[in-house]
Amino acid sequence: MAYVARGRNDVVNYPVEDCHDGQGTIFVRQVLGYEPLLPVPGNPGDFDSLINFIHETTLPPGTSIGLHPHEGNEEVYIVTEGKGEMTVDGEKVPMEPGTACLTKSGSKHTFRNVGDTDCRIIVIEAVFDAKDKKK
């Protein structure tokens, strides 16, 4: 097939406890692709390229994604709703709707909701080498 179309209502919004040793319960929809490190079903055959996944993740107030490294891949967080704070290698980046932050290979990052409402983000991960493609 020449395309894959899947929306937020086509996939389950799975609760994930203490993601990467973060705080609280966040909710992840694996819209396209697959991240096997999360207890969330996905679709590993979606991408022919070196993109692993596109998630929609919701962080309720007071929750966070814990500090974790990226080696051999890059990850983009894009805020679509709410207010967040990304910390990459110790540098804090305030994030609001329309803000994107790229974490490059060799860096570590964390993300937290700093607002009074849910913070919704789109997360995209790609690898450099086909051997690192998640299946």
Automatic annotation (TrEMBL):
Keywords: Metal-binding. Gene3D superfamilies: Jelly Rolls. It holds the Pfam family Cupin_2. Residues 57-124 form the Cupin type-2 domain. InterPro entries: Cupin_2, GPI/OXD, RmlC-like_jellyroll, RmlC_Cupin_sf. It comes from the Bacteria. This is Cupin domain-containing protein. It comes from Cohnella cellulosilytica. The lineage of its organism: Bacteria, Bacillati, Bacillota, Bacilli, Bacillales.
